[in-house]
Structure formats: structure tokens, C-alpha cells
Design a protein that fits this description.
Largest sheet: none
Strand content: under 5%
Distance between the termini: 105 Å
Number of domains: 2
Number of strands: 0
Order of helices and strands: HHHHHH
Radius of gyration: 31 Å
Structural class: mainly alpha
Length: 163
């Protein structure tokens, strides 16, 4: 049949369907891979930062690690110890600035001083236990204060904050 059109000629006359949808789908997969990659890198960075900040303190015994954690958290609040402060001097200054938690600050510092300077035997289990309980209360109060400052929700300064 000579009058019948060749199938290849008909195929050339038909326009191919648009392929923009397939390209958009590939771009979406690339975007998802990038986001997941950045999330993975962020998680790894947070784990490394956590280890650098807190993990090394795990090698210390309870009164030492508790005191050093308190000092590090105080540093985040801009209330860290100066190089010339003794542990009790630092604790007294911090207790004044964290007025409601002042007793907890002093319990942590006293257990540290007894343990480090008085020898492990002089640090009674009761002092260490009281220090650990005080730290549990203190760290949440300090973290709340840090987050309020970070989010711009600071309390008005009091007379004790300006000194």
C-alpha cells in the first residue's frame, strides 16, 4: 500500500511530551540529598562539640566534674571564674549573681574544695551526694537563664547583676 504513511514519518510528526516533570523530580532528589547531608554534618558537629565541652569531664570524679561543669556553664553566662579566683571566691561571686541558687553553688564548690584540697577521704559521701543534688537543680536554672539571654528574654538587671 503505497498511500499508507510510514510509521516512522508519523512518529516524527508527533511532538514528544514535555519532560520538565522528570527534571523537577531529579532536582527534588538533589535538594533532599543536600539537606540530609547538611543535617548529618550538623549532627556530627554537635556530637564533637558536646564531647569537647562535656565528654572530657567524664574522666574526673564526681566533685571535680560537677564543679567544672558549673564553671563552664557559668562561662557561657558571662559569669565564669577569672584566672586568679580560688574555687570558693568564684563560687561566692556566682552565688551572689544567681541569688536563688546561691546555696546550690556553694554546695558544689565546698564538695570540690574538700575533695581536691582536703583529700578524697575528707570529702564525705553526704557532701558529694548533696553536691550532686545541688548540681541537678543548678544546671537547669543556669540553662534556663542562658536560653532566656540567647532568645533575648533577659530579666531586667538587678543591683547584684551590675557589680
Amino acid at each position: 500500500m503505497p498511500d499508507d504513511p510510514d510509521l516512522t514519518e508519523l512518529a516524527d510528526l508527533i511532538e514528544p511530551p514535555p519532560t520538565a516533570g522528570a527534571g523537577g523530580l531529579a532536582a527534588g532528589f538533589i535538594f533532599i540529598r543536600v539537606v540530609l547531608g547538611l543535617a548529618g554534618i550538623s549532627i556530627i558537629a554537635l556530637i564533637v562539640a558536646w564531647y569537647q565541652w562535656w565528654g572530657r569531664l567524664g574522666r574526673l570524679q564526681a566533685p571535680q566534674s560537677t564543679y567544672h561543669k558549673m564553671a563552664r556553664l557559668a562561662s557561657l553566662l558571662g559569669m565564669g571564674p577569672s584566672s586568679s579566683d580560688t574555687p570558693l571566691e568564684f563560687a561566692k561571686q556566682l552565688a551572689q549573681r544567681l541569688e536563688p541558687q546561691g546555696d546550690d553553688v556553694m554546695k558544689v564548690a565546698r564538695a570540690y574544695v574538700l575533695f581536691v584540697y582536703g583529700g578524697q577521704q575528707s570529702a564525705r559521701l553526704a557532701d558529694i551526694g548533696a553536691s550532686n543534688q545541688a548540681w541537678r537543680r543548678l544546671r537547669w536554672a543556669m540553662l534556663r537563664r542562658f536560653l532566656r539571654g540567647w532568645m533575648g528574654l533577659r530579666k531586667p538587671k538587678t543591683a547584684t547583676d551590675s557589680t
